[in-house]
C-alpha cells in the first residue's frame, strides 16, 4: 500500500491501482479515464522530464496504452463548472443575496469548512467539483450515447489530490448506489501504473483526448493554479453580464502564489470585491474575518493546497519547493495562451451538451446532476 501525507495534513493515500487494473482487464467493463489540469504539468517529472514541461499529449498516449476505452479531460468539466458557477455568481451578485459566494471545486477545503466552519456552510457555490461533474455527465449523457448502463462504465479519475478520493466516495455522489466516479488515482499512482506496464512516457508520441468530453478551453486549464477558477469565472461572467467581448482575457491581479490576494474588478460598471486564498491557514484567516463581519467580499476562491492543485498531495515531489511549483504554474498559463478557445462558454462540446441534454445553465436538470449541498460538522477524514 502506498502511504503518503497530504499537505492538508488530514489525509493519507490508499492506492486504487489493483481495482483499476482489474477493471482494465474486465471485458464486460467500459473503462474511461479523466485527467485533471495539474497532472499534465507534473507527471513528466516522474519520467526524468524537466519540471513544468507540459506533457498533455504523452499523458493521453500513456492512458490509451494502458487500455482505457476513452480518455477525457477534466478541463471539459472545469468549463462546465464555470457555466454553472458563473450563472450562480451572476444571480447572487445581482440580487445581493447570500454573499460572498465561495468556490467549491476543492474537496480539501470543503471538508475543512464543513467541520471547522459549519455556520458558513450555506455560502459556498452549490456547484459540484469538475471531477464530480464529469462523473455525473459520463454516467448519464455519455452512457446514453454509448447505449450502456451506468454500472457497466468504470470512470477512473487521475487527480493531483488525495481529498478527491474522499470526495468520490461521498454517498451523495452515488445516485441509485452507482458511483459517478469509481476510482481515483493520484499523479504518483498513475506514474507507477505506467511504469508497471513497462511504458516510458517520455518517448511516447502525442495523442489527442477523445470527444466530446475531451474538448476544453484555456479557462479549464488554469483551474490547476491558485486564482485560475476565479479568472475563468470572470471571463464568462463578464461576457454573460455585459453581452460584450472581453478586450483582454488575462486578470493578472488574481494570479500568483501569495496565500491571500485581494482585489476588485470592474465588470462594465459592476464592481466585484474578490479574495483568492490558498493553503488552509489562509482559508481559516479569511473565513474568521467573514464570520466576524470584518471584511466584505463578493466572490472568494479557496484552495486547500498552497499555490493550488499544481502543489496537491498526490503530485510528485511534494516538499514545498516553490521554484518547482512556479514552473508548473507557468506550464498551465502557457497551455491556456496556446489554446484556440480560452473562454468556457465558447467550448463547442459544452454548447452541444446544453443544447442536447441540459437546457440552460441552472436548469432543473443541471441542478439535479451538477449541483450539491454540504453537511455541517461532517469530517470525512475520520471515515
Ligand atoms: Fe485537492 Fe489540493 Fe487541489 Fe484542493 S487544492 S482540489 S486539496 S489538490
Keywords for this entry:
383 residues; binds iron/sulfur cluster; alpha/beta; 8 strands; single chain; four-stranded mixed beta sheet; four-stranded parallel beta sheet; Rossmann fold; disordered N terminus
Structure description:
- This protein has 383 residues and is α/β, with parallel strands linked by helices.
- It has a single domain (17-370), classed as 3-Layer(aba) Sandwich (Rossmann fold).
- The protein is built from 13 helices and eight strands.
- The protein has helices at residues 17-24, 56-66, 74-95, 107-116, 130-146, 163-168, 187-196, 218-221, 228-242, 280-291, 322-338, 348-358, 364-370; strands spanning 30-35, 70-73, 101-102, 153-159, 183-186, 260-267, 270-278, 299-303.
- A four-stranded parallel beta sheet has the order 2-1-4-5, sandwiched between helices.
- Helix 3 packs across helix 5 (130-146) and helix 3 (74-95) packs across helix 9 (228-242).
- The longest helix is centred in the N-terminal third of the chain and has 22 residues, at 74-95.
- It binds iron/sulfur cluster.
Amino acid at each position: 500500500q502506498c502511504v503518503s501525507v497530504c499537505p492538508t495534513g488530514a489525509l493519507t493515500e490508499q492506492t486504487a491501482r489493483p481495482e483499476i487494473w482489474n477493471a482494465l482487464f474486465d471485458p464486460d467493463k467500459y473503462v474511461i479515464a479523466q485527467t485533471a489540469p495539474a497532472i499534465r504539468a507534473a507527471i513528466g517529472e516522474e519520467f526524468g522530464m524537466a519540471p513544468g514541461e507540459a506533457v498533455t499529449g504523452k499523458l493521453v498516449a500513456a492512458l490509451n496504452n494502458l487500455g482505457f476505452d476513452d480518455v477525457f479531460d477534466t478541463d471539459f468539466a472545469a468549463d462546465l463548472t464555470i457555466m454553472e458557477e458563473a450563472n450562480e455568481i451572476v444571480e447572487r451578485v445581482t440580487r445581493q443575496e447570500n454573499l460572498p459566494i465561495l468556490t467549491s471545486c476543492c474537496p480539501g477545503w470543503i471538508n475543512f469548512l464543513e467541520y471547522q466552519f459549519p455556520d458558513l456552510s450555506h455560502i459556498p457555490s452549490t456547484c459540484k467539483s469538475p471531477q464530480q461533474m464529469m462523473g455525473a455527465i459520463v454516467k448519464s449523457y455519455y452512457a446514453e450515447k454509448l447505449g450502456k448502463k451506468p454500472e457497466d462504465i468504470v470512470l477512473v479519475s487521475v487527480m493531483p489530490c488525495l481529498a478527491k478520493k474522499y470526495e468520490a466516495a461521498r454517498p451523495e455522489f452515488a445516485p441509485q448506489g452507482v458511483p459517478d466516479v469509481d476510482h481515483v488515482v493520484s499523479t504518483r499512482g498513475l506514474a507507477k501504473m505506467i511504469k508497471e506496464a513497462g511504458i516510458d512516457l517520455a518517448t511516447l508520441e502525442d495523442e489527442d483526448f477523445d470527444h466530446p468530453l475531451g474538448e476544453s478551453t484555456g479557462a479549464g486549464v488554469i483551474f490547476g493554479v491558485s486564482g485560475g477558477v476565479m479568472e475563468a469565472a470572470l471571463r464568462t461572467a463578464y461576457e454573460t453580464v455585459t453581452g460584450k467581448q472581453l478586450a483582454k482575457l488575462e486578470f493578472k491581479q488574481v494570479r500568483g502564489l501569495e496565500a491571500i490576494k485581494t482585489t476588485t474588478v470592474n465588470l462594465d460598471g459592476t464592481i466585484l470585491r474578490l479574495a483568492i486564498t490558498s493553503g488552509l491557514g489562509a482559508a481559516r484567516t479569511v473565513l474568521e474575518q467573514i464570520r466576524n463581519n470584518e471584511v466584505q467580499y463578493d466572490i472568494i476562491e479557496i484552495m486547500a493546497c498552497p499555490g493550488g492543485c499544481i502543489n496537491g498531495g498526490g503530485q510528485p515531489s511534494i516538499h514545498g519547493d516553490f521554484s518547482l511549483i512556479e514552473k508548473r504554474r507557468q506550464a498551465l498559463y502557457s497551455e491556456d495562451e496556446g489554446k484556440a478557445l480560452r473562454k468556457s462558454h465558447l467550448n463547442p462540446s459544452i454548447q452541444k451538451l446544453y443544447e442536447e441534454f441540459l437546457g440552460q445553465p441552472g436548469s432543473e436538470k443541471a441542478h439535479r446532476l451538477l449541483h450539491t449541498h454540504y453537511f455541517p460538522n461532517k469530517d470525512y477524514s475520520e471515515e
